[in-house]
Amino acid sequence: MSQALWYASRATGLVSLLLVTATTVLGLLGASRVATASWPRFVVAGLHRNLSLLTVAFLAVHISTAVIDPYAGIKWLDAVLPFTSSYQPIWLGLGAVALDLMIAITVTSLLRTRMSHRAWRIVHLTSYALWPIVVIHGLGNGGTDRHQAWILALYALCFLAVAAAGLLRLRATHPDTELRNVNVARWR
Description:
The protein is mainly α. It is 76% helix and 0% strand. It contains eight helices and no strands. It starts with a helix and ends with a helix.
């Protein structure tokens, strides 16, 4: 049974990486106001939101199987309290940091209509830190899998996707953004 849990944890961890990457890319594209006739902004936003929720589901299975598997002796508290685990404290701690960020982003997104846009945006900006923490957690805690060519290729493709979307985000201009930047500069 324990080997099945190990495989389930690894598999759902990799699927979670793909989903976090896709969610990050869609978030960057949405922030860049990328849209086409076949992919209007509301479709990008809806896909971003739904993939985020799917990520939470896979992450729940990833964490549950890692905790239930007796091999590493990971406790439930280790999943939420960073750097307290006796097993791989740094790498598992980064996973706990990523989980805590994901919880904060998810909760504030679900409460978005009940809070100020500024407060939501400040918390949501932590998602820029979430993706690299997830990648470092996966590479550091990946055991012997992290040396396999297909795993490295998967991480490289994720990196290229986020880098391309990030560059697009940095180069994006929009009249609303330009007006907001002028108003911010005026109040300084």
